[in-house]
Amino acid sequence: MDVRIENWIDHLKEEKPDYHFGDHVHMVDSAFYMPQLGKYRRIWIYLPKSYKNSNKKYPVLYMHDGQHLFHATPARNDEWAVDTITDNLIREGAHEMIIVGIDHGENDRLKEYNPYDSQYGKGEGKAYIQFLAETLRPFINQQYRTLTDVGNTSIAGSSLGGLISMFAIAEYPKVFGSAGIFSPAFWLAPAIYTDITDRLSDLKNNKVFLVTGDKEGAEMVNNVEKMYSILNPDGRNKNIVFHECEDGKHTEWFWHREFPAFYDFIKR
Questions:
Q1: CATH number of residue 201's parent domain
Q2: HSE toward the beta carbon, residue 209, CA cutoff 13 A
Q3: How many H-runs (helices) and E-runs (strands) does the chain carry?
Q4: Does residue 70 sit within a domain?
Q5: Sheet harboring 39-46: ordered strands across?
Q6: In this model, does residue 37 exceed pLDDT 90?
Q7: Does residue 158 belong to any structural domain of this protein?
Q8: Is the pTM of this model over 0.70?
C-alpha cells in the first residue's frame, strides 16, 4: 500500500474574502484540490431557496471567475450578481437551478482559461476543464441533489471565461449540454475556430448562447460572428443564438443584464 499525503491542512493557505454573499450562497471549500493542475481553489455554490425544504433535484450551471459572480456585501462594481438575478427569475416563475462558481487563479487566469499556448505561457485550459468535468462535477453530484444528465448541466463565463466555456462544450459535449459565451476572448486563441469546426458533428445536440456588444470593438464582434457562422452556417439551428448589443461593453453590468436571456435559453 502506497499512502501519499499531498499536504497538511494547516499548511494550506486559506484565503478569506473581505466580503460575504447572500444566505443561500455557500462556500463548498476554501481550498478544493485540483489534481489535474496540482493546485487548490475556492469553490462556491448557490442553492435555490426551495433546496433546504425539498427533496427535488436541480439542474446545475458551472461558472468561472467565482469571485465576481454573486452579489456581495458590501456591494461591488465588478459583480454579475447571478444569485440576485436567479432569485428574481424564480419568483417570476422561471425554473430553479444550482449555480457553482469556481474562483479564478489570479495570476494563473490567463493560462488556466486558455487551452492553447500563448504569449502568457503554456495553456492549462484542457486540464482545468478536465478538473471541472471529471473531478468537481462528480463531487457536486454526490454532495448535492442534482440532475446529472447532459441536458441539465451547463457552463458559462465571460471574456477568458467565455473562451474556456466554448472549449469545454466542445471537449465534453456529453457532459455540458449548453454553454453561455459572453464576450469571449477568442482573439487570444485563434485555434479555437479550427477546433470547433473539426467537432461540429459532436455538437449537433448542444446549445450555445453567444453575446457581445458593439462597444467592445469591431474585432470582438467579428470574432463572435465568425464563431456563430461556424456553429450555425445557415442560421436555422435554434440551439445556437447570437446577441449583438449596440450598447454592450466588456464589463460585468453588461453580462449581468444579458444573463436572464441565457438563463431562459438553457431550458427553452
A1: 3.40.50.1820
A2: 23
A3: 8, 10
A4: yes
A5: 25-34, 39-46, 98-102, 60-63, 153-158, 178-182, 207-213, 240-245
A6: yes
A7: yes
A8: yes
